[in-house]
Amino acid sequence: MATSNPITFPFATEAYIARPNAPSPPVLEPITYSALQPTEVLVSIAAVSICHTDLRAISGDFHLKPPMIPGHEGSGTVLATGSQVTYVEAGDSVVLAYASCGRCRRCVLGKNAFCDGLVGMNFAGSGDGVVRDGDGGHVKGGFFGQSSMSRVALVHESSCVKVDVEDKRELELCASLGCGIQTGAGSILNIAKPTPSSKIVIFGAGAVGLSALLAAKLTSPSHLILIDKSPTKLSNIHPSLLTNVHVLDTSTHKTPTETALAIKALTPGNMGVDYALECIGNESCILAAHACLDTLGTLITVGSSATAKLNIGIGTHLIRGITIRGTHQGDSVSRVMVPELVGLWKRGVFPFELVVERFGFGELGRAVGEMRSGRVVKPLLVA
Ligand SMILES: [Zn+2]
Ligand SMILES: [Zn+2]
């Protein structure tokens, strides 16, 4: 469907540009989009939240290297659509998530998070000349199909998730559902699928871990344990999130075994847990998460790392019937998971707003500092 929108290209706006070896966080710079491709959508950004993967990309520690526009948890209003776009039209409210092809075997099976085209569509960047900076230099867009740290973003249609929101403030808040929160929630709701008799431990009190905690509370598990080595992070968690939760500060722990024993001590007969979610991507935590499992338990590695390795003796692993499962995006199909989480939030049973803190759109530097200090879990830059 061709758009009748009067928007024309080249289209000029402002975006954060991560520069190679930059000593400080990116700042807003003028950019120009050369054209709107048939499968692309132009979105006026209402808000974009910051995920740790943005920080990795900004520092050059990710597949898509600077110069690039970060941002992969955006929300906004559709301004214009490419000639082959059918899912959204101008004026629609959308949350932006990862992109997928929708046609490969994985996508057809509802496993879009493992799309055959995942790397190309999310981490390869847009083509040469599609996005240019104020000096005419090439800048890569298309990060997670969206590069939404921009006043107006050029996104792949598959990244768009239509959401039913009452006003702009709700649309802004929903930006944060696009990656970290659907990853944490999906790891529980799509993979672990605990029962009321389940024992669960979650490593990491960041946005992913706390979202997993919120989702786990929906299932009323018999034992729910949250672990972090940062007393600052743990003390900043809203108290209402921690009802019926065992909180374990591991800042003084010397070994993974010490942490595993402390977790087991919180379970009946010191038997350990059924599900351990590692939401950090830290080798010691992965070892502790594996060692604290009860027989037939499952370790789910949720946190990402470019360097962490798994070194586990298969003897005890085998005889205890342990499962190790990796996940991307908590196996979430965004057009299913995001509206579900919005619905749960409206019912008051998934209060994810308690992990989000608002900043001005131009305050990326301050927001990153607050995030790194552990004082803020999920900064939201509001346009
Ligand atoms: Zn696919
Ligand atoms: Zn992310």
Detailed description of the structure:
The chain has 383 residues and is of the alpha/beta class. The chain has two domains: 11-178 and 351-382, Medium-chain alcohol dehydrogenases, catalytic domain (Quinone Oxidoreductase, Chain A, domain 1), CATH 3.90.180.10; 181-328, Rossmann fold, CATH 3.40.50. The protein is 26% helix and 23% strand. Strands 3, 4, 5, 7, 8, 15 and 16 form a seven-stranded mixed sheet that branches. The protein has a six-stranded parallel sheet with strand order 11-10-9-12-13-14, with helices on both faces. Strands 1-2-6 form a three-stranded antiparallel sheet, with no helix packed on it. Strand 10 (223-228), helix 7 and strand 11 form a beta-alpha-beta unit. Helix 5 packs across helix 6 (207-218) and helix 8 (256-264) packs parallel to helix 9. The mean pLDDT is 96. One zinc ion is lined by residues 100-101, 103-104, 106-107, 115-117.
Topology:
Blueprint: E1 11-16, E2 28-33, E3 40-49, H1 52-58, E4 74-81, E5 93-96, H2 105-108, H3 118-122, E6 131-133, E7 152-156, E8 160-162, H4 168-174, H5 180-192, E9 199-203, H6 207-218, E10 223-228, H7 231-235, E11 246-249, H8 256-264, E12 273-278, H9 283-291, E13 293-301, H10 314-319, E14 323-326, H11 334-346, E15 356-360, H12 364-373, E16 378-382
Parallel strand pairs: 9-10, 9-12, 10-11, 12-13, 13-14, 15-16
Antiparallel strand pairs: 1-2, 2-6, 3-4, 3-7, 3-16, 4-5, 5-8
Helix pairs in contact: 5-6, 8-9
The chain binds zinc ion (2 copies).
One zinc ion binds at residues 100-101, 103-104, 106-107, 115-117.
